[in-house]
């Protein structure tokens, strides 16, 4: 699971990334602070199943607080994109190629309109953040279009001459985007295209590029700097203008401040929580106290969250529609080392017991015999469709 963090320069993208991962990255109030992609680990929230079994889990990866499981996901933060990125402006082609591996994109925008199209600071309200959404759609579409068009004339003629299956051919042509034969067929048929590739013109290929972008690079909009003037008004306007997107009000600086304060034992704070508690005896300066009070009054009280955790959760569970599945045993929930419910896997909706077996290890999939729903103690077959938060024991031929 890889989440790509994208957007133009100077909108708080690197601050968002650091707030989500606490990775050490350079942050500055000027364009192109990030040149090479940063990689780090963030977490998505899952209601842990430990409380249902009356045990305390011991995660091998991630952590669990008050029966809220934080499951790790990888984030990559690429350098800021500018209009014309697909033509190489601002090293745009390189940055776009860094996103090939991403399963979902988080588009960080300055919702207050305090950053112009070049990534330069301006007065809040001087720029319309709707333009950022439009420009990124165009850049991604043109990037994919160029990938399709590369060697297209020769490729399409050969496919036609050799009477090759067009869906297999397209999958082979776009293997870098993770396109398989079934996916290619779904996209082509959804656009009612003919199977003769030599008859596809530029407009046809651009339509394919747009459809591929929507399906392969789904995007959620992180509306950063929501506390600045015009932020709330622009947020409501964009939701009405782009009803197909998920918008989340955010303050990356606030989340980063809270996590840093918690890291230094000044406050108790669970990511995504609507509140925090100052620790008894914490040595907090007057400046820090005022900052926490401002944050509480302007972010947490009106929005119930800084938004950063919500973006990650919604990216995985709402946009990608993944679910969390726990390996376990009917007779015991511990692994060989005594760790209770040590693992939690994120897998696509409608995955089967066999899919889950392969997710754990290829040998379990190859030697699959049956699975057991640990909550109900019922035996299920390989085609049994799993539900979010299932606990599953895989029985294999050892």
Task: Provide a brief overview of the structure.
Helix content is 37%, strand content 19%. It has helices spanning 13-21, 50-53, 92-97, 130-149, 152-161, 166-173, 181-190, 202-216, 231-241, 252-263, 286-303, 308-319, 353-360, 362-366; strands spanning 2-6, 38-47, 63-65, 68-77, 104-110, 219-224, 246-249, 267-268, 277-278, 322-327, 345-348, 368-373, 378-380, 391-396. The strands form 3 sheets. Strands 1, 2, 3, 4, 5, 6 and 7 form a 7-stranded mixed beta sheet that branches.
Please describe the structure with a list of short key phrases separated by commas or semicolons.
3 domains, Rossmann fold, alpha/beta, flat, Helicase, Ruva Protein, domain 3, Ubiquitin-like (UB roll)
Mind explaining what this structure looks like?
It is a single chain. The chain folds into three domains: 2-128 and 218-315, P-loop containing nucleotide triphosphate hydrolases (Rossmann fold, 3-Layer(aba) Sandwich); 142-212, Helicase, Ruva Protein, domain 3, CATH 1.10.8.470; 326-396, Roll (Ubiquitin-like (UB roll)). It is flat, with a radius of gyration of 23 Å. Helix content is 37%, strand content 19%. The chain has helices at residues 13-21, 50-53, 92-97, 130-149, 152-161, 166-173, 181-190, 202-216, 231-241, 252-263, 286-303, 308-319, 353-360, 362-366, and strands at residues 2-6, 38-47, 63-65, 68-77, 104-110, 219-224, 246-249, 267-268, 277-278, 322-327, 345-348, 368-373, 378-380, 391-396. The chain has 398 residues and is α/β, with parallel strands linked by helices. It is built from 14 helices and 14 strands. The model is unreliable at 25-35 (pLDDT under 50). Strand 3 (63-65) and strand 4 (68-77) form a beta hairpin. The strands form three sheets. Strands 1, 2, 3, 4, 5, 6 and 7 form a seven-stranded mixed sheet that branches. Helix 1 packs parallel to helix 10 (252-263), helix 4 (130-149) packs across helix 8 (202-216) and helix 6 packs across helix 7 (181-190).
């Amino acid at each position: 699971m890889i989440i790509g963090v994208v957007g133009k320069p100077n909108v708080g993208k690197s601050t968002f990334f650091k707030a989500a991962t606490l990775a050490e990255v350079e942050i500055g109030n000027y364009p192109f602070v990030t040149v090479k992609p940063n990689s780090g680990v963030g977490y998505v929230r899952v209601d842990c199943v430990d409380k249902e079994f009356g045990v305390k889990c011991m995660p091998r990866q991630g952590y669990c607080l008050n029966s809220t499981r934080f499951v790790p996901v990888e984030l990559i933060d690429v350098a800021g994109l500018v209009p014309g990125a697909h033509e190489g402006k601002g090293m745009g082609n390189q940055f776009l190629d860094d996103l090939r591996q991403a399963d979902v994109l988080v588009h960080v925008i300055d919702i207050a309109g305090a950053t112009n199209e070049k990534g330069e600071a301006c007065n809040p309200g001087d720029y319309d953040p709707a333009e950022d959404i439009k420009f990124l759609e165009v850049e991604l579409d043109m990037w994919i279009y160029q990938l399709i068009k590369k060697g297209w004339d020769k490729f399409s003629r050969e496919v036609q001459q050799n009477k090759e299956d067009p869906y297999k051919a397209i999958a082979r042509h776009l293997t870098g985007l993770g396109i398989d034969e079934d996916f290619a067929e779904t996209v082509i048929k959804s656009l009612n295209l003919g199977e003769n590739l030599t008859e596809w013109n530029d407009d046809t290929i651009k339509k394919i590029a747009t459809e591929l972008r929507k399906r392969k690079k789904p995007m959620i909009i992180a509306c950063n700097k929501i506390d600045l003037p015009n932020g709330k008004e622009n947020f409501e306007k964009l939701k009405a203008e782009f009803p197909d997107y998920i918008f989340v009000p955010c303050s990356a600086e606030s989340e980063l401040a809270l996590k840093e304060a918690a890291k230094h034992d000044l406050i108790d704070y669970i990511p995504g929580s609507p509140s925090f508690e100052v620790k008894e005896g914490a040595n907090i300066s007057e400046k820090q106290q005022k900052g926490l009070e401002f944050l509480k009054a302007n972010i947490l009280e009106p929005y119930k969250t800084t938004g950063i955790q919500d973006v990650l959760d919604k990216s995985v569970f709402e946009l990608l529609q993944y679910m969390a599945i726990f390996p376990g045993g009917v007779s015991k929930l511990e692994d060989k080392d005594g760790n209770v419910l040590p693992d939690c896997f994120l897998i696509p909706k409608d995955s089967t017991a066999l899919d889950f077996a392969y997710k754990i290890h290829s040998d379990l999939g190859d030697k699959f015999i049956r699975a057991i729903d640990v909550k109900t103690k019922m035996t299920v077959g390989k085609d049994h469709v799993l539900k979010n938060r299932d606990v599953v024991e895989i029985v294999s031929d050892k």
